[in-house]
Amino acid sequence: MSDIQLKVKDRIYSGWKTLKAVRTLEAIAGSFEITAINKEGFDAVPGDNCELLIEGNTIISGYIDALDYKIGISEHEISLRGRDKTADLVDSSALNKTGEFLNVSLKELITKITEPFNIGVIWNVAPGEKRLKVSLMQETVFEVIERETRKSG
User: Fold this and answer.
1) Best label site of 2, 60, 62, 113, fewest CB within 10 Å?
2) Which candidate, 49, 51, 78, places its Cα nearest to that of 63?
3) Cα dihedral sign, 80-83-85-90
């Protein structure tokens, strides 16, 4: 698996034993799990930014969620799990000073609530009719997006 690399803190790690990467339209966030044996000098903690590359192409750009170590007599295994940056939309609350948006299209709403996370919105359909009022109800960003897009059909 020498064509698989993980970039953490401007350092590139290769020589991985196993990799499971998932990117699907059915989940907002892509994820990965990667394992290595005797990975000396690995310097990362949960929350660190990372990039998973396959054959030089970035597959997932996001964060390390968890690290697990198994220490044996003759070898040491490190496993880590991570998700791409859209995981922020699943994990974080939608915020607005007033708790509501007035007279916004679906495109404007989604653009505004994803803006704090530096996640761009690509819009290939009509922006939709203006909504008179969209209230935030202690939901994650993804929950607001899902609720409001379902209203649009």
Assistant:
1) 2
2) 49
3) negative
Contact 16, 32 (CB under 8 A): no
Q: What is the pLDDT of residues 88-118, one digit of tens each?
A: 999 999 988 889 999 999 999 999 999 999 9
What's the token pair of residue 44? Answer: 């990362």
Q: What is the pTM of this model?
A: 0.80
130: DSSP letter: P
Q: Considering only CA atoms, which of 94, 86, 77 is closest in space to residue 37?
A: 77
Extract the tokens encoding 25: 């339209």
- CA geometry: angle at 36 spanning 29 and 59, to 5°? 30
Which of 79, 122, 140, 132 has the alpha carbon at shortest distance from 102?
132
- Residue length of the chain: 153
Amino acid identity for residue 107 in this structure: K
